[in-house]
Amino acid sequence: MSLDRIRLADFRNHVATRLEGTARFNLLIGPNGAGKTNVLEALSLLAPGRGLRRAQLGDMAREGAHGGFAIGADLISGISPVRIGTAVRPDAPGRRQVQASGAPLPAARLAEWLSMSWLTPAMDRLFADSASARRRFLDRMVLGIDPGHAANSAIYDKALRERNRLMGADERPDPRWLDALEREMADAGAKIAKARAETVAALDAHIAALPDAPFARPKLAVDPAAPADAEALAEIWRKGRGADRGAGRTLVGPHRDDLAVVMAGSGRAAAECSTGEQKAMLIAITLAHAALSAGARPLVLLLDEVAAHLDPDRRAVLYERLAASGAQVWMTGTETEPFASLPERPAVWHLSGGAAERLP
Ligand SMILES: Nc1ncnc2c1ncn2[C@@H]1O[C@H](COP(=O)(O)OP(=O)(O)OP(=O)(O)O)[C@@H](O)[C@H]1O
């Protein structure tokens, strides 16, 4: 179960890149600035959301081209491949369009087709970063297990934006309109909170059964900003209207949840662990998630510059666990040497100047 026949058109420095004959392990090798991360970013747009750089759509279109871009791939799962794709048309530059089997699809529904997660160098700071960055990381993992999470999040975010708009407006909002919005937020918010709690509990239980080495073992918990019960949420928002109007936004709710991580051995908060320990815990969480979410839908893992920073023993364990997860794995590097111990023969592309050449 994997992606193949991948096409990038006018995406960042890629004019027309084709990646065919993919394998379980796929390596993108090339010098700095060649366009390796750009390929991972393109693949990340085959999932709901803004992709692994969270960039603006306008920044992703190739400079000097017509302002749009397209990404397509065959999703091999089941009997016949399904063509999935996403594109931005030059005449609608702010809108990402998504298709599956030639039919338009809301981006949130891509989660029903495949599950995607990634580790990038920018995530090295995740534990010291904002709660919103950790919440996004958590939500992507939840999506891999519960694809309905994307739709619930979309409903919640839309109603929240509308409530925030009313809270920031000069006139006092119509209470009946607020009742309706808060009801919608409460129903979606309770489902979001439940899905987050279940995913974190499953990850934590999986990780607890693993040894402390070679990847420092994290303990995970949701740090909830609000109750997980729809009635209680609706009540909090109804009672908090005065304070929220004062602040001009909704102060409490699952949109403020955080993911709390400590190192199991020492009990130290992840943000206070060494850089290497933090990276090891992120890898442990990503591997646990891969193990838990594999099977239901094709799982694609994008690992940017992960292998080269590990010692050979950790690398070997990483590769073993990746192979066992059944995920399709994409890894980048400036040279092939760190990938010599892969348990299976990888598909390898050499990248340079936004062009990819398949190596034999
Ligand atoms: N919209 C764009 N149009 C054209 N080129 C772009 C665009 N956005 C980024 N680039 C170019 O893409 C290149 C960076 O590509 P990418 O980040 O994929 O490199 P990389 O191969 O992962 O390198 P590294 O090993 O340094 O991480 C840069 O040269 C950058 O100028």
UniProtKB/TrEMBL annotation:
Q: What is its main location?
A: cytoplasm
> Does the record's keyword annotation contain Coiled coil?
no
Q: Which GO terms describe its cellular component?
A: cytoplasm
Q: Indicate which residues the UniProt annotation says bind ATP.
A: G30, P31, N32, G33, A34, G35, K36, T37
Q: Which UniProt keywords apply?
A: ATP-binding, Cytoplasm, DNA damage, DNA repair, DNA replication, DNA-binding, Nucleotide-binding, SOS response
UniProt xrefs under Pfam families: SMC_N
PROSITE patterns tied to this protein: RECF_1, RECF_2
Q: What does this protein do?
A: The RecF protein is involved in DNA metabolism; it is required for DNA replication and normal SOS inducibility. RecF binds preferentially to single-stranded, linear DNA. It also seems to bind ATP.
Q: Which family does it belong to?
A: Belongs to the RecF family.
Task: State what protein this is by name.
Answer: DNA replication and repair protein RecF
Q: Which organism is it from?
A: Croceicoccus naphthovorans
Q: Source taxonomy lineage?
A: Bacteria, Pseudomonadati, Pseudomonadota, Alphaproteobacteria, Sphingomonadales
**The encoding gene:** recF
